[in-house]
Every structure is written in C-alpha cells, then in structure tokens.
Amino acid sequence: MSSSTFTMKLLTVCLILVLMVVVYCSAIPKPGEKRVHETKLSDLQHEEDSEHNEDYDHEAFLGKEEAQDFDDLSPEESKERLSVIVDKIDTNKDGQVTEQELKEWIQFIQRRYIVTDTDRMWKEHDLEDDKLHWKSYMKRTYGYEDSPDSVDSPTFSYKDTIDRDHRRWEAADTDKDMKLSKEEFVHFLHPEDSDHMRDVVVQETIEDIDKDNDGYISLEEYIRDMYPNENKEEEPDWVKSERQQFEQYRDLDKDGKMDSKEVKNWIVPPDYDHSDAEANHLIYEADNNKDGNLSKDEILEHYDLFVGSQATDFGEALTRHDEF
Questions:
Q1: Which of 81, 125, 187, 268 is deepest in the core (most CB within 10 A)?
Q2: pLDDT (tens digit, 9 = 90+) per residue, 151-182?
Q3: What is the pTM of this model?
Q4: Residue 95 CB: number of other CB atoms within 10 A?
Q5: Between 108 and 55, where is the model more confident?
Q6: For the stretch 222-240, what's the b/e string if a residue is b when 16 or more beta carbons lie within 10 angstroms of its beta carbon?
C-alpha cells in the first residue's frame, strides 16, 4: 500500500468517525447554536508531520467516553490493562488477534456508544405509548412546545436549530406519524448509521461548512473547517496535502467546489466499511512479522497506537464487552 493511498484511506476513516461521534445535548441551546454538537474535522485531523491519526485509532479501539481513565497512567499500567483487552478480543484464545476479531471489537465499541447514548436520552423524555412525540421533544429540548415560525413565539430565536431538528425528525420517522419509536430515535440521534438518513447527514455537513450559504463547499471552506488559521501562519504539510486531496479526489467535476453528490461520495463513500479499514490499518502499523495477525507482544509493543494518553473509558470496555 503506497503512503499516499494509505493517507487518503485514513482521512476518509477519520471523517466517518467524526460523523459517527454525534453528541446529543439536552440543554436548551443559545440562539444560533446547534442542538447537536458535531466535532469539527480538525478535532481528529492529522498533526503536522504525522503519518496517521492516533486520536482516531484510540477512539475506534476504545470508544469516546467522558471518563479520562488513561490520562495519568504510566506505560506499564497502560500495557497491563491493554493485555486484558487483548485477551477479550482474541475470542478463540489462540494467542493471535486476527483482522476479523479486531473488526468485531471495533464494531462492538461503536454499538456500545450508540446503545448507551440512545438509552440515556430515551429515559430523559416523556413518552406516550412508548413513543416520543415531537411536542414532547420540543418541550424537553427547547423549553416550549410552540412552533418557531412566529416572531412572537418563545422558540423563534431557535428557529434554525429547530428546523434542522424537524428535518432530521421527519427523515427518522419512517411510519410518518410524527412520533418516534426507540428504533426511530436511534436514527434521529445517529443518522450516519442509517442508509435512509444519509441525505440528511450530507445536507447538515454542507450547512456546517458552507459559510457563504451558496449550497456548495468550496476549497477554502473545506480547508478552513479543518484549519481556521486565524493567525495567518504558514500552512502545515497536512493542510497542503488536503488541498491536493480536494482538487484531485473530492471535487470530481473540477469546478472548484463540492456539490451534494460529491459531499456524499466524500463522507459516506459507497461500499466503505470503516471498521474493516481501521482494523486493516492497526494491523498494518503493528504487525511486525507481517503474518497478517497481531500477537499480544506486537500489540503491547505498539501500545501507544491502541491506547496512548488520549484513551478513554478503558475499564468500561473491559466490564461491558460480554453484554454483546
């Protein structure tokens, strides 16, 4: 695998994870703020002169949770805990972690986040007949049931975010009764995981990055979302590389901007499996003897790739794996 191909693949993986880590906020947002906080592309972007993004690897392997259990652990403590995780991943107990076992672990981490996040938010709402009504959602989230369409409405100042929520709600509401079952609520909270929600994800992505509101993402908008460069410093190499990525691979019709089809191809490429790509990447980085599998020694030798100082909620991964 060439370095440029590998970098392209990993950048795509990073963006998909960005879309997957959507944190639902129950507090009433201020006017102009989003109800849903979406991590900016730069939050998981490459550091200067780095070949891959370790923050992404840590989150894919361990999950992005609130607890920061690993911040103060020594390398020895990190390796000790990682050793226990490796035993969990090695399901057939042959001393080797295969790509399939690693892929299944990464999928478990993803499912765990979605399940726990949905359960937590579902319990915070008032339900009727085990469904969530739009008005109940409005009252819980914005404090009022009133439509934001009238200037006299107490929710008028939140019109943009409410309209965005309502559009996502309608897409998630597959039976069109303006109520969400728990399954539909999963689609609402995590649209990136549902095929019928992909267009909503694309539209929201364009709205977030498209600062001149022309319905497209220009090269400069694309770059500034990842690297604001408020101090007007010289761009690092990874930013220059991203400019080339945009021109060569994102902007397919070479008109200097991405339309909705090009954005969709960028953030949700067809037939792309992020867990497979990440498992392949981790093996590529840590498989010293190139046998296609990872021994415990190889994983522990590369412990910073799998956990590092940014790893989170390792203990929960240990205690909750058997739930699935």
A1: 187
A2: 888 889 999 999 999 999 999 999 999 999 99
A3: 0.70
A4: 12
A5: 108
A6: bbebbbeeeeeeeebebbe
